[in-house]
Amino acid sequence: MRRITRIATVGIASAALALSATACGGKKSSDAAASPSESGGQKSAAIAYDIGGRGDQSFNDAAYAGLKKAETELKIKGAEAEPTDGEGEADKVQRLTELARKGNNPVIGVGFAYAPAIKKVAPKFPNTTFGIIDDTSVTGPNVANMVFNEEQGSYLAGVAAAKASKTGTVGFIGGVEVPLIKKFEAGFTQGVKETNPNAKVLSAYLTQPPNFDGFAKPDLGKAAAQGQLDAGADVIYAAAGLAGSGAIEAASAKGKWAIGVDSDQYNQAGLAKYKDSILTSVTKDVSDSVFDLIKSVEDGKPTTGEIRYGLDKDGVGLADSNPKYKEMTDVTAAVEKAKADIIAKKITVKTAP
Which of 22, 229, 281, 310 has the fewest CB atoms within 10 Å distance of its CB? Predict the structure, then answer.
């Protein structure tokens, strides 16, 4: 039976113990990783989720799928840590410290928001590999940066949206206006415009940093999509994590197309009632990136540094699970041509709008 450890917050007693050890001038208890024998004899790996947590039908669930695969194929124990509402950097530092102290290896931060915390925690656990998804700003001898060419997959989504649209107006919704999400917007808009120069792209962001609720509030995604649909959009692409499910719901209610993100959202159980309206999804192979890092540690050869996933290695792509999408041969042909041209470097996709 699969065993999972879920950690939402670290207890007051643990924090007090660490503080006591520091006051006495000794090494903090949180800075010493447990050995496999101390943690029950079974090797373990951990992921700390991004805003929205597991169950977002998107980014976090893709990471969980990689951990689950590692549990099954590598026979390890998996640990999961959920974010808390309104948390700060100190909470992430404490979460990663606790996961590392318990002997998990690797410890993976799901999302760029973990960069400052990993920068602080990784040096304290030199024998533990830390992975971070969607960030290259923090580096170290025991840090693996798992990054993707999101703009390339989004370009393909733009091609599909432009070909499938009947009104000539499509929408992009970003969860939070940060450089990572602007890569999605840039690729999508370029794909639309280079397919149909007369097309109109409506763009909206749900929140501005430091407010990251735009990745976690489906009602915000739904309201933004409704506004774009009312303005004539008939294809909506949302790069907004859990909030994107609200955009999918809104598109479905109007009988219009939605394009999913990160996971193949047509196949997500939580979105089953809307699946017929999910034309396609821009996929990021977060699952395999998590699994591959865990396996490298288990093999005794931890991967570190930048690990990039693009169209050329199927690290990003466009899902074709919806039979209706497959039937649109003019759409699929245009997408395949664009994919080939990007891989052949005939098309250079922008990373900023």
Answer: 22
